[in-house]
Amino acid sequence: MASYERRTFGGEALGRTQLSDSITVNGREYHWPKQPLVVVCLDGSSFDYIEAASAADLTPYLTSLISAGNFRMVQAAMPTFTNPNNVSIVTGVSPARHGISGNFYLHRASKKATMMNDASLLRAETILAAFSRAGARVTVVTAKDKLRPLIACGVDGVCISAEQEGVPVYSAALSEHVFKRGRALLKTEKPDLMYLSTSDYIQHLHAPGSREANEFYKVIDHELSEFHAGYATLVVTADHGMNSKTDAAGEPSVIFLQSILDEWFGKSSTTVILPITDPYVVHHGSLGSFASIYLHDITQEPQMINRLAEMEGIDLVLDRYLANRQLELPADRIGDLVVCADRRTVLGTREQDHDLSTLTHPLRSHGGLAERDVPMLFNRQVFEKAPTRTLRNYDAFWVGLNLIQ
Fold this sequence. Notes:
Blueprint: E1 22-25, E2 28-31, E3 37-41, H1 47-55, H2 60-67, E4 71-75, H3 82-91, H4 95-98, E5 104-107, E6 112-115, H5 127-133, E7 138-142, H6 148-151, E8 159-161, H7 173-188, E9 193-197, H8 201-205, H9 211-229, E10 233-237, E11 243-244, E12 254-256, H10 257-265, E13 270-273, E14 290-295, H11 301-309, E15 314-319, H12 320-326, E16 337-341, E17 346-348, E18 364-365, E19 373-378, H13 396-403
Parallel strand pairs: 3-9, 3-10, 7-8, 7-9, 12-17
Antiparallel strand pairs: 1-2, 4-19, 5-6, 10-19, 11-18, 13-14, 14-16, 15-16
């Protein structure tokens, strides 16, 4: 097994014009970085991908972090989709605070279905923007361009996407480009803080331990080891896990909620919104394990909750006030009801609304409670002063700036 030693800059702070030793963002205090901090979001990376690649001796660097105890299982924000979790990571708070409740939502006043990729929808400042304003050098590289406006909001620094630079979206190269550009920028820009966010293209298509997945994580392992060699502090986590969503015959296991509710309560009774929806639906057909239901007659809510909760494949049904409290979701940006499907099931609207002809592999997706547990790895020992609650993926910057020695 390869050995990876801790390296430092001798304790010299890298902040150029810092205003204080720490700053407070969204009610949390963050210490100024003593050396470059690189936070990485490995999109769709449940721990079993890393575990399988490690067992095949393909990821010596990640294996070394786990062996050293620099590893925790943490929880992602709900719903377990890309936009709310990436924004949670860079703000350090839940969707209830920052306002991004999915990739897609229904604007209640206008009744307009809206993509959640506009920075005007943010209700909390990012950690990156706050440090940038305080004089830190900040760099952002995302895989897909949809995230860049949200993550880069308020940042005075280099903020780019691999998609913007012409890398094909439906390819492993998209994520690989994120690391290569990040490493180059670490040398040229010398950032205090860097945020890298990859794509889950591989995880949507290939199961843990598959040749394709193992090769992908082999590349990631090498790239992360290069950041370590470049003297960066690393915190690596994920926005969500990924699970097979097929039946025994290998066909997508789907509950078409809109069709069912139309049959039960009438065709004008509800509007179902699927927050997984974004511009990149080829590999999942807009099928995920979380849905919002907007009721046109709120008196039908109790009966609807009871009937949905009894369905096979449904994990959880909550009204929006309970969803706000229990899942930390913004009550005004979710439906009157939210529904989570189980580990093997996804939620759709109507069968004719989903083009599954583009699926080249058995369906793999995310969005529910079953995709909430994700890894967090770091390349330094941490102080024993972690919070009493379960760590979240959006504690990544707090861990990197406050807990790492």
